Amino acid sequence: MIEDKNPQRTSIAQLGEFGLIDHLTKHFEINQPSTLKGIGDDAAVLDFKDKKAVVSTDLLVEGVHFDLAYMPLKHLGYKAVVANVSDICAMNAKPTQITVSIAVSNRFPLEALEDLFAGITHAAKEYNVDVIGGDTTSSQKGLIISITALGEANAADIVYRSGAKENDLLVVTGDIGAAYMGLQVLEREKQVFQVNPNNQPDLDNYTYLIERQLKPEARKDIKDLLEKLEVKPTSMIDISDGLSSEVMHLCKQSNVGCTIYEEKLPLDPQLISVCEEFNIDSTTVAINGGEDYELLFTIAIEDFDKIKANPNLTVIGHMNKETEGKHLVTRANQKIELKARGWNALEE
Ligand code: ADP
Ligand code: MG
Question: Which of 142, 148, 222, 278 could anchor a disulfide with 62, C-beta 3.0 to 4.6 Å?
Fold first, then answer.
C-alpha cells in the first residue's frame, strides 16, 4: 500500500558500520542542559544536578510489534520514540534524552534507515529530547528497534503506580480505543491491497483512527497541566496495553479495587461510527484496545473541582476496597468483572 514507485537502494554494506552510524547520527543536536556528552564516545555523560533521573526501555520487533506493510518507516521511528517518551510522562517526569539501538538485515537499503531516522529525528524535536547514543548491528531477519528514554523530575513530583487510595477518582486523558480501530482499518486495507495492488484505498472516513495508530503522541502536556491545576496524581500509568490491563496494574500495585462506568468512557465519534461499521462493540475496544498512549491516573476526591471542567481529562470511575474487586458498570447498570485482556505481544 505504501510503496515507492522508484526507490533508490543503497546497500548498507557499502557504507560499513561506522560509515552507517555516522551517516545516520551526524545531524542530531544537543539541546538539553543535562546532556554533557552525547554521541561520539564510549558512553554519554549526563548531569541531572538536584533532580532524579527516570529511565525506561522498549524493544520493538518486526512482525511482533509492527508490520512494515502498512507502517511507513518514518512513522515507525516516530512512534518508537513516542512510546518511550510516554513512559517517562507516566512517571510525571520530563523527557530529556533517548538512545536508539537497531538491528537490521541487509534487506533494508540505506534509504529505509534514513526514513526510520527521519521519524526519530522529528519526534526528538517535537518532544525536545536529545539523541545521545545507541548501537547499530545486523540481524539475520527483520528489523529490531530498542529505544531507551531518560527524563528528569523533582523527587517529590514523581508519581508511581502504587499510590492509589480507596475512593480516589480514576481519570483518563484524551480519548481511548482509536489506535486499535485504526489498526483494524489498516489490516483490512492491507488484505484488499494484497488481492488487488491497484486498488487505492479511500481512507477519508478513518483519518483520526489511522493517525492514532500510525502517528500517536505522548501526553507531555499533562505534567504541566496538572501542575497548573495544582493536582498531584496519587498513581499514574500510560495506556499502551489497553485501559483494562493498565487499571489492573494500578489496582495491584496500590492494593485497591476499582469501578469504571461504561457511560463515562471518552470515545471519539469516529471510533463509534467505525465500530458500528465493523460490528465491534466500542466499549470492548475502549477498554481492551492498546497503543493510545494516553495517561491513566488517580486523584484524591477533594481535587475533583480542580479538574472537572478540563476537556483533556475525564473521570471514568473510582478506586475502592481491594476486596470489592475490579468492575465495569455497564449502561444497563450491570456489573462486569474486569479482565486484563490488553494486547499482549507474548500471546500472539
Ligand atoms: P561502541 O563500539 O562503543 O559500541 P559504536 O561505534 O557502536 O560504539 O558507536 C559510536 C557512537 O555512535 C556511540 O556514541 C554510540 O552511542 C553512537 N551510536 C551507535 N549507533 C547508534 C544509533 N543507532 N543511534 C544513535 N547513536 C548511535
Ligand atoms: Mg556499538
Answer: 142
Query: Would you call 284 helix, strand, or coil by DSSP?
Result: helix
* Residue nearest atom 20 in ligand 1 by C-alpha distance: 135
The verdict on domain 169-337 having CATH code 3.90.650.10 is: yes
Q: Is 107 annotated as a binding residue?
A: no
pLDDT digits (tens, 9 = 90+) for 247-306: 999 999 999 999 999 999 999 999 999 999 999 999 999 999 999 999 999 999 999 999
Closest atom of ligand 1 relative to the 135 alpha carbon: 20
Interval 88-141: pLDDT, tens:
999 999 999 999 999 999 999 999 999 999 999 999 999 999 999 999 999 999
Residue 42 is assigned to a ligand binding site: yes
Instruction: Output the residue whose Cα is nearest ligand 1's atom 10.
Output: 40
Q: List the Cα angle 153/157/158 in 5-degree steps.
A: 75
| The three three-digit cell numbers of residue 187, written as one number | 489490516
Q: What span, in angstroms and rounded, lies between the C-alpha atoms of 214 and 212?
A: 6
| Best of 37, 73, 135 for a ligand 1 pocket test (most atoms within 8 Å of beta carbon) | 135
Q: Would you tell me which CATH number, out of the four given (3.30.1330.10, 3.40.1350.10, 3.90.650.10, 3.40.190.10), belongs to the domain 12-157?
A: 3.30.1330.10
